[in-house]
TrEMBL record:
Originating species: Gimesia maris
Main EC class the enzyme belongs to: transferase
Gene: rpoA_1
EC number: 2.7.7.6
Domain of life: Bacteria
Name the UniProt record assigns to this protein: DNA-directed RNA polymerase subunit alpha
Keywords (A to Z) from UniProt: DNA-directed RNA polymerase, Nucleotidyltransferase, Transcription, Transferase
């Protein structure tokens, strides 16, 4: 996970994976400058650590298709 992403999460009192899993996708995306790329970093982290994805999805803007990771 990038330093930028970790800093955004720390600023919003997310210090552990447990804290992160409890958040809704909408809450994360409401953080200024926390967009789809940053959300994808979080999803990738869950995959690497084999933590169940809390149902977050990336919606591509070009054709508005949802991709679950």
């Amino acid at each position: 996970m990038s330093v930028r992403t970790v800093n955004y999460l720390k600023e919003h009192k997310v210090h552990t994976i447990g804290d992160l899993v409890k958040l809704k996708q909408e809450d994360l995306l409401s953080i200024p400058n926390f967009g789809e790329q940053t959300l994808q970093e979080c999803i990738d982290l869950f995959d690497r650590l084999k933590v169940p994805n809390p149902g977050w999805e990336i919606v591509t803007k070009k054709n508005n298709k949802k991709t679950k990771s």
